[in-house]
Design a protein that fits this description.
The chain is of the alpha/beta class. It has 2 domains: about 270 residues, Rossmann fold (3-Layer(aba) Sandwich); about 140 residues, no CATH class. Helix content is about 45%, strand content about 10%. The strands form 3 sheets. It has a 7-stranded mixed beta sheet, sandwiched between helices. A 3-stranded mixed beta sheet has the order 8-11-10, with helices on one face. Strands 9-12 form a two-stranded antiparallel sheet. α6 links the parallel β1 and β2. α9 crosses α10. The longest helix has about 35 residues. It starts with a helix and ends with a helix. About 5% of the residues have low confidence. It holds the Pfam family ThiF. This is Related to E.coli molybdopterin-converting factor chlN.
């Protein structure tokens, strides 16, 4: 050892400093050890303080016990939950359970979340995962609204349901499982079907303090009920977020959050958006939706056969009036992603955490251009049929909207020309020349309205250049399709026209 180093460690000042450091380490160790011991004591005391299981008359949050046997663990969880929700629960233990959220959202953000009141309407695959995430993240007051029961088919996507829960109301199943994880969260269970007649009650303030809901979650899969909920919230200024359909979806990377006005790719949101527009609601509702497109080999919601429609009373095939009459193809993972995305948006919004969602690129100019081209093509066709004068003034209106154009281009024709597969400069045009006039006249003189008899099943998607050639050969010169296109193209077009015809049943009712 060098003399300099020896002199240093032999110095009284160094020895004093070393003693101080060693003492500090010892004290820190004792403090941490005592804190751990104290925490363990609190946790042990809490567990030991749960009442005995002699009382077998407990009811699950006022709903009462179901017909199945309630096991001892349920009774213990219910007893603890009653105490915790009454305030008899160590807050330090709650904060430790929420520690990761606490450091992410900050103390202020977590405090806002713990003070929040959220209503979840629909506690199936999407709603159950959303509810679980909200409770685990700190939301302290949650109202659950759902009339349905857990079924065997629910188990591929429900967040917490087990075989033992089959036949139990979904709201009770959710409560039963969540109080075993977050006993301090207060639940208000509404085992009822939501509709406009009970909207005031279902979306009312929290009974104890009159607090308005900080968020309402729409996890309903019935269009009419969904529209009623969203319209009610919009008119009353209640913050709401809606889930689009997770059925037939398989790509979690294509799930987005955006305004309902931007959800052009999703069939459920498209129909919902149309109905809301008719009620005066055009924007201002965030939606979780998927921009994934259908494709060859992917699951599809197959419409009911024409034979079933001919029988009439299609609604009788469903469990309740206006509810779907078919089984949706659902990959069990996708409702969970939708549910967690809903919860994520709510958690960040309430806590004040910055949210920056990428803007979904739409092809609005393309759709407008396609509609404009169709308008001109129909004008020229009517002029040719009516008078043979291509310069005659017609002033024709079309029964085709920009939403119809979007649907046909993106969903029926997959964003490509049916002739060559080219994805740019797309337009819509009639596939066949009509046998007679397509113009309808209503009124006369200054109040006369002229419109084209045109349906989705009449239109095909091509590039502008292809459409010009098609109009010239097929629509004007009446050349047979078989002379212009090969059999494969004609067969592909006929299949797409049949798809558009089947879709008209739903779009016309929207």
């Amino acid at each position: 050892m060098s003399p300099v180093l020896w002199d240093l460690i032999s110095s009284p000042r160094f020895q004093l400093a070393a003693t101080v450091v060693a003492s500090g380490v010892t004290v820190a160790g004792l403090i941490l050890g005592y804190q751990a011991f104290e925490q363990e004591e609190r946790l042990s005391e809490l567990k030991n303080s749960i009442p005995s299981l002699e009382d077998h008359h407990l009811k699950i949050n006022g709903l009462g016990a179901s017909s199945r046997h309630i096991d001892k663990e349920d009774l213990r969880n219910e007893a603890l939950a009653r105490r915790a929700q009454a305030g008899d629960f160590d807050d330090e233990l709650i904060l430790e359970q929420l520690a990761r959220n606490r450091v992410f959202l900050t103390d202020e953000g977590l405090a806002k979340l713990r003070d929040a009141f959220v209503i979840v309407v629909g506690v199936g695959g999407v709603g159950s995962h959303c509810t679980a995430a909200l409770a685990r993240s700190g939301v302290s007051r949650i109202r659950l609204v759902d009339f349905d029961q857990v079924t065997l088919s629910s188990l591929n996507r429900h967040a917490v349901a087990t075989l033992a829960d089959v036949g139990m109301p979904k709201v009770q199943c959710m409560y039963r499982r969540m109080i075993a994880i977050t006993p301090w969260v207060k639940f208000d269970l509404k085992k009822d079907k939501f509709d406009i007649d009970v909207a005031e009650e279902m979306l009312s303030p929290w009974a104890e303090d009159g607090r308005q809901p900080d968020f309402v979650v729409d996890a309903i899969d019935n269009i009419d009920t969904k529209v009623e909920l969203l319209k009610f919230c919009h008119d009353r200024g209640l913050p709401v977020i809606s889930s689009a359909g997770s059925g037939c979806k398989s790509d979690p990377t294509r799930i987005m959050v955006g305004d309902i006005s931007a959800t052009t790719e999703d069939p459920l949101s498209r129909v919902t958006r149309r109905k809301l527009k008719r009620l005066g609601v055009h924007t201002g509702i965030p939606v979780v939706y998927s921009v994934e497109r259908s494709g060859e080999g992917k699951a599809e919601l197959i419409p009911l056969s024409e034979e079933e429609y001919q029988k009439g009373c299609v609604g009788e095939l469903s469990a309740l009036p206006n509810f779907r009459a078919r089984i949706l193809p659902v990959l069990g993972t996708m409702p969970a992603v939708f549910g967690y995305t809903l919860a994520n948006h709510i958690i960040l919004t309430i806590s004040g955490y910055p949210i920056y969602y990428p803007t979904v690129k739409t092809r609005g100019k393309l759709y407008d251009s396609a509609l404009s081209y169709l308008q001109g093509a129909e004008e020229r066709l009517v002029k040719d049929i009516e008078s043979g004068d291509p310069h005659a003034n017609v002033g024709l209106k079309l029964p085709i909207s920009s939403s119809d154009v979007t649907y046909l281009i993106e969903e029926v024709y997959k964003g490509k020309s049916i002739i060559t597969g080219v994805p740019t400069k797309l337009v819509l045009i009639r596939w066949r020349r009509p046998e007679g006039t397509t113009m309808r006249r209503i009124g006369s003189g200054a109040v006369e309205q002229k419109s084209a008899e045109l349906r989705l099943r009449d239109l095909v998607c091509m590039t502008k250049e292809e459409a010009i050639q098609h109009a010239e050969k097929v629509l004007m010169k009446k050349q047979p399709l078989e002379e212009v296109y090969d059999k494969e193209v004609i067969a592909n077009v006929e299949a797409r026209l049949a798809e558009a015809e089947a879709a008209e049943k739903y779009l016309s009712a929207a």
